[in-house]
């Protein structure tokens, strides 16, 4: 089976921003939620007391929490082109994912992906990197039109064949 689709860098970034918080590991999510809540309570409390300096510090802490959530997520190399509207072709065959951008071609094996998530508009392919240089989460959004449910199922079957695990947004681990 060969699956071909096209996407733009803007679409990739929009979908990753939309689902980013739910795709980070559960431990980080819980830590950020508790930190955010504590800092928000401190921020509101210090505003009512009139201690504006401390409330500014709590506000910057909230911004740091939001930065931690968004900084761990990266898009693959072949979506990183200068033109936001350039078309990136994604081809998935039986063994590899080929990304063709105007200035480069990147080939990755299917086994380099650890998880996938099926959403209404397509499929996310996800890699958790624990290397010191590439630490974080790398995601690739493969758009599939709503009318092509057969293609979506074939791609899901192919990913399951390579033991790439699916996960539910609400129950990550």
Quick summary of this structure?
The protein has a five-stranded mixed sheet with strand order 2-8-7-6-9.
Please name the defining characteristics of this protein.
five-stranded mixed sheet; alpha+beta; 173 residues
Question: What's the structural blueprint in terms of helices and strands?
Answer:
Layout: E1 3-8, H1 9-23, H2 26-49, H3 52-71, E2 73-74, E3 87-92, E4 96-100, E5 105-109, E6 115-119, E7 122-129, E8 136-143, H4 149-161, E9 165-166
Parallel strand pairs: 2-8, 6-9
Antiparallel strand pairs: 1-3, 3-4, 4-5, 6-7, 7-8
What does this 3D model show about the protein?
With about 170 residues, this protein is an alpha+beta fold. Helix content is about 40%, strand content about 25%. A five-stranded mixed beta sheet has the order 2-8-7-6-9. A four-stranded antiparallel beta sheet has the order 1-3-4-5. A hairpin with a 3-residue loop joins strand 3 and strand 4 (about 95-100). Helix 2 (about 25-50) packs antiparallel against helix 3. It starts with a strand and ends in a 7-residue tail after the last strand.
Q: Largest beta sheet: what is the strand line-up?
A: 2-8-7-6-9
Portion in strands: 25-35%
Q: How many whole angstroms does the radius of gyration measure? A: 19 Å
Distance between the termini: 30 Å
- Report mean pLDDT, rounded to a whole number: 79
Structural class of the helices, strands and pairings? alpha+beta
Number of strands: 9
Please state the overall shape, judged from the principal axes of the Cα atoms: elongated
Major beta sheet summary: 5 strands, mixed
Order of helices and strands: EHHHEEEEEEEHE
Residue windows where pLDDT falls under 50 for at least 5 positions: none
Helix content: 40-55%
What is the helix tally? Answer: 4
């Amino acid at each position: 089976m060969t699956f071909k689709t096209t996407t733009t860098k803007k679409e990739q970034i929009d979908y990753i921003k939309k689902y980013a918080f739910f795709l980070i590991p559960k431990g980080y999510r819980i830590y950020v939620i508790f930190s955010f809540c504590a800092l928000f309570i401190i921020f509101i409390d210090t505003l009512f007391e009139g201690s504006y300096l401390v409330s500014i510090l709590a506000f910057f802490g909230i911004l740091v929490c939001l930065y931690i959530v968004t900084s761990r997520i990266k898009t693959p190399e072949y979506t990183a082109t200068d033109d936001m509207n350039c078309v990136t072709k994604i081809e998935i065959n039986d063994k590899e994912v080929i990304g063709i951008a105007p200035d480069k071609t990147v080939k990755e094996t299917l086994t380099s992906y650890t998880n996938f998530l099926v959403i209404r508009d397509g499929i996310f392919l996800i890699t958790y990197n624990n290397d010191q240089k590439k630490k974080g989460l790398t995601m690739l959004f493969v758009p599939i039109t709503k009318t092509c449910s057969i293609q979506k199922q074939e791609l899901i079957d192919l990913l399951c064949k390579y033991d790439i695990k699916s996960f539910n947004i609400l129950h990550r681990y």
